[in-house]
């Protein structure tokens, strides 16, 4: 394997007394696409939120794109530039237009000229197939459109790694596909490293290099999507799959 872009070594995290991440060892190769699944409360969100330091681990090592995550704020700022995140609830700024949502980070954080940022923003709005929505406010868009704006917003920061936390689970069923299609396109065309928490099996089979199953704070099983879904090894994995399939 090439030098990993993400390395977790014996990573542990607690919320108070609650041991939420237990001895996580994980290496992610550049360009690798990983789907994380598992029961509610198993620590999936916590795991991926540690990667951009929205959560802090207390023990073990976490290295992202060559920078070890410690309490040093400089390191946190460095990796946040490399890591984009898309949440279940789109987290757009409601009082800014779509275009303004997309240019805010590039202009204020990356110090790009406004005209250049707008050009890049339009490019990504085209990529997620909603350039005509550029001057609307998030509240005027459907959930699926808002989530595509959120994806475009992340892309405008040119991240090396994209994290997705159940990006389709808050959407009405008829909007899930348009968002998944955008993500599949992104996975196939961009070569970007992606970690996606989702239970969308079709998506996992289409794009994932590896599926990781978590339960009670541990990685229980991991495999290629076909092997994982067709021949789960662990009893807990089988139980979980029998509930979502
Ligand atoms: P998942 O994403 O797999 O549903 P989470 O990572 O959100 O799981 O949460 C794992 C466990 O940690 C759950 O039991 C949850 O209640 C608990 N938890 C999550 N966030 C916090 C927090 N900020 N404080 C205390 N407990 C938390
Ligand atoms: Mg979660």
Give a brief outline of the structure.
The protein has 245 residues and is α/β, with parallel strands linked by helices.
Secondary-structure content class: alpha/beta
Report the CATH superfamily. P-loop containing nucleotide triphosphate hydrolases
- Mean model confidence by pLDDT: 95
> How much of the residues is beta strand, in percent?
15-25%
The top level CATH class name: Alpha Beta
Ends distance: 32 Å
Give an overview of the whole structure.
- By secondary structure, the chain is α/β, with parallel strands linked by helices.
- The chain has a single domain, classed as Rossmann fold, CATH 3.40.50.300.
- Helix content is 40%, strand content 24%.
- The chain is built from 9 helices and 10 strands.
- The strands form 2 sheets. It has a 6-stranded mixed beta sheet, sandwiched between helices. Strands 2-1-4-5 form a 4-stranded antiparallel beta sheet, covered by helices on one side.
- Helix 4 packs across helix 5 and helix 5 packs parallel to helix 6.
- The two termini are 32 Å apart.
- 43% of the residues are buried.
- The model has no long low-confidence stretch (mean pLDDT 95).
- The site of magnesium ion has 4 residues, from helix 1.
Keywords:
alpha/beta, ATP binding, 9 helices, transport, single chain, 245 residues, 40% helix, MetN_ABC_transporter-like, four-stranded antiparallel sheet, binds magnesium ion, ABC_transporter-like_ATP-bd, Rossmann fold, Amino acid ABC transporter ATP-binding protein
